[in-house]
Amino acid sequence: MEESKFIELLFYILPALITGLIAYYFFRLHTQNEEGRRRYLVHRESQKSTLPIRLQAYERMALFLERINPSKLLLRVAPVDADKEHYESQLIHAVESEFDHNLAQQIYLSDECWNVIKASKNATIQLIRKAAMNAETADKLREGVLNDLLDKQPPSYAALSYIKKEVGELW
User: Which residues lie closer than 8 Å to 109 by C-beta, 6 or more apart?
Assistant: First the structure.
């Protein structure tokens, strides 16, 4: 007799248990969806405030890359005298000071983009140093840098292309 009462009790408890588990599952699913929705809304709101700052950082880095473009750099930084070492250090200092001026922008850029920009800066400095090895005067250094650019694109073009691609992905 007790066994039949136990089975009867089981028949009453089993539907309540199944209903409780289903309710728990749906409640958990609903809670997760609500949390995801809230996270999405917070993320969207933060995007609205950070997007203009990030775009400004990309703009400043594009300007930096244009300013260190060797053909524009040579126009802006003219040799004071015929000493090639002095002119070489003057050009490298101009590139480094431009970079230092924009150093804080890295917090708004992806690590990969920042590394591409640094590589472009270093390649520009190497281009200047390579031209200085074969030059005797400051004017010959200028000629050497410009002759190197006749065959290929300046290093800043690759970084500018990368910035344009990354900005395009922000939309």
Answer: 54, 57, 58, 61, 117, 166
